[in-house]
Amino acid sequence: MSKIIITPLGTISPYPKGNRNCPGFLVEYNNKKILLDCGNGITRLLDLKKDLNNLIIIITHLHKDHFGDIGSIQYASYTYHNLGLLDNKVKIYLPKKDYLHNKKSIIKTKESYSEYYDIVNNSILLIDDLKITFHNNYSHSIETYMIKLENNNSKVVYTSDIGIINLEDRINFCNNSDLLICESSYLQKHITNNKSHLTAKDAAILANLSNSKELLLTHFWPEEDVFLYKKEAKEYFDYTSLAEECKKLVLK
Ligand SMILES: [Zn+2]
Question: Domain containing 185: what range?
Fold first, then answer.
């Protein structure tokens, strides 16, 4: 049975800092590569001479922290193709509706060897026997998709950016995940009226209510002590860890 291998490439937002980048997770399955989000700085952690071939990129929503490096990959694909080193176009999945012309600027880029697909809510993309489901979370501030990856052995959910509303629907989508990769933009001490992101506590409660086996927190504030997120979440869900650039996870 094939294993799902996930490598965090970016774990902070809204800007990269030090050796940490904006959101991105590389999924390897058989010889296929699927990049979940393409945040600022992640390109330096890809091995483009290998990873560009058969690469699928899924941009969960059109906020800059989730697609800031797409231009680097597009330009790399253009260069590799011109050198005769890339035969297959990079496939890029994007939300259907544009936001502040961000989608237009991506798909109109001429110096790129890529092709574009609209994400359709609740549609399934099959990569060998790996089922990838897109689900609009209807709780972030713009059209944003959660991604579920599952084969016969494992189920992984990447929430992308989610807010606190529409909880029941999110619980259903994340139900019985072996691994829940969940955003935790805030800690409880960050008093905010922003309802379109979660605290570490909210993420832990989602893991708990969805009966997930493990929680991997991500999307941290760059200036905050990352261990405080783990401490806060563990009060509500014990099997919590922190996403870390290049720290590979192998699902059984
Ligand atoms: Zn974000």
Answer: 5-250
Residue 72 CA to ligand 1 centre (angstroms): 19
Q: What would the pLDDT profile of 143-197 be if each residue is shown by its tens digit?
A: 899 999 999 999 999 999 998 888 889 999 999 999 999 999 999 988 777 788 9
Number of H helices, E strands in the chain: 6, 14
Q: Indicate the pTM of the whole model.
A: 0.95
- The pLDDT tens digits for 93-146 are 999 998 899 999 998 888 999 999 999 999 999 999 999 999 998 888 888 999
Number of domains making up the chain: 1
C-alpha 181 – ligand 1 centre gap (Å): 13
CA pair distance 172, 147, nearest whole angstrom: 13
Residue 50 and residue 64: Cα distance in Å, rounded?
26
Q: What is the domain-level CATH number for residue 13?
A: 3.60.15.10
Q: How far is the CA of 53 from the centre of ligand 1 (A)?
A: 27
Distance 98 CA to ligand 1 centre (A): 16
Question: Ligand 1 center to residue 193 CA distance, Å?
Answer: 17
The CA-to-CA distance between both ends of the chain, in Å, stands at: 9
- Tokens 């990769």 label which residue? 181
CA 65 to centroid of ligand 1, rounded, Å:
5
Residue 14 burial (10 A CB sphere; 0-12, 13-18, 19+)? middle
Q: Quick: pLDDT tens for 2-35.
A: 899 999 999 999 999 999 999 999 999 998 999 9
Distance 2 CA to ligand 1 centre (A): 30
